[in-house]
Amino acid sequence: MASRGAFQLNVILVLALAATAFSTLSPYYYQDVCPEALPTIKRVVEAAVYNERRMGASLLRLHFHDCFVNGCDASLLLDSTSTIDSEKNSRANQNSTRGFEVIDQIKIEVDKICGRPVFSCADILAVAARDSVVALGGSSWMVPLGRRDSTTASRTQADSDLPSPLMDLPALIDNFKRQGLDERDLVALSGGHTLGFAQCFTFRDRIYNETNIDDDFAEERRKTCPRNGGNTTLAPLDPSPARFDTAYFNNLVEEEGLLHSDQALFNGGSTDELVKTYSENARAFSADFAKSMVKMGNIKVLTGEAGQIRLNCRKVIN
Asked: Any signal peptide, and if so, which residues (predicted)?
């Protein structure tokens, strides 16, 4: 019996070592080199969200839009140069993504507290997304760290890979599948739309022409989004856009999803039951959201000697 127990213990140890070997990221990556980095990021994010509640949604979106284009490598943060066609100018990002100045501030403060640039911009995006959710009432999770920053960006790839607010369910499923994400990830991560706002031009066709929409909801949205003009006028993605809750999913069940791609998740398709589950069970949503955020945060990460640790998140070190 003793030898059998020893064998089982050895198997457990081997499996643990194997898991460590194949895991490229770790929540404790900076624990020795800069233990004050995470509290510093949390402090800057909380101050930014306190100053403008909408900023939480913006910082969460930056991480999402970064990861979906060539992986979680901070390519989104790079400004245009003679050799870089910035992803900031893509259809999904231009005049839409925001919060870059908060990331700049975080980078300055973290490098100061660490004494040198050891914390990557890609990791800052991942941690800032988590801290934004927590600042707005959501549950926390351990963020695996150790990403490095890209030296390139691609507006063309951003135009190709970022999901559109006009996508139907099959297109959304395919879009997420290409990133290694399944239907549960799609629904859980779409729940990030419990925070923030959308511009009129992204939902105009839905409120005037679609039939799977509550009449009163459509009429309310038409008051600030006319058939012509007002393209950048904002509307909340759910009734509590500065609180991380399940109102987004409640809206979908009531046919009050703002974007076509939102309501596509509850429209007689394969994701209906999961939407209903999340609308009724906040704990299930929070748990799945955290798992999917970690999974998304592992998309095509740069580690080891790949990439670099930028001095300025907007510029490549030459």
From this structure: 1-21
Does residue 304 have a known ligand-binding role?
Answer: no
Query: What CATH number was assigned to the domain covering residues 169-293?
Result: 1.10.420.10
CATH 1.10.420.10 domain residues, the chain: 169-293
CA atoms within 13 A on the CB side of 53: 12
Q: Rounded mean pLDDT of the chain?
A: 93
Residues of the chain with CATH 1.10.520.10: 37-162
161 is in an annotated binding site: no
**194 assigned to a ligand binding site:** yes
The annotation status of 174 as a binding-site residue, yes or no, is no
pLDDT tens digit sequence for 81-99: 999 999 999 999 999 999 9
Express each pLDDT in 152-162 by its tens digit: 999 999 999 99
Give me the pLDDT at residue 23, please: 52
Half-sphere exposure of 311 (CA within 13 A, CB side): 3
User: How is domain 37-162 classified at the architecture level of CATH?
Assistant: Orthogonal Bundle (1.10)
- List C-alpha distances in Å: 196 to 87, 169, 271: 21, 22, 23
Whether 145 and 34 have beta carbons less than 8 Å apart is answered as no
Catalytic residue list: 65
- On whether 75 is known to bind a ligand per the annotation, the reply is yes
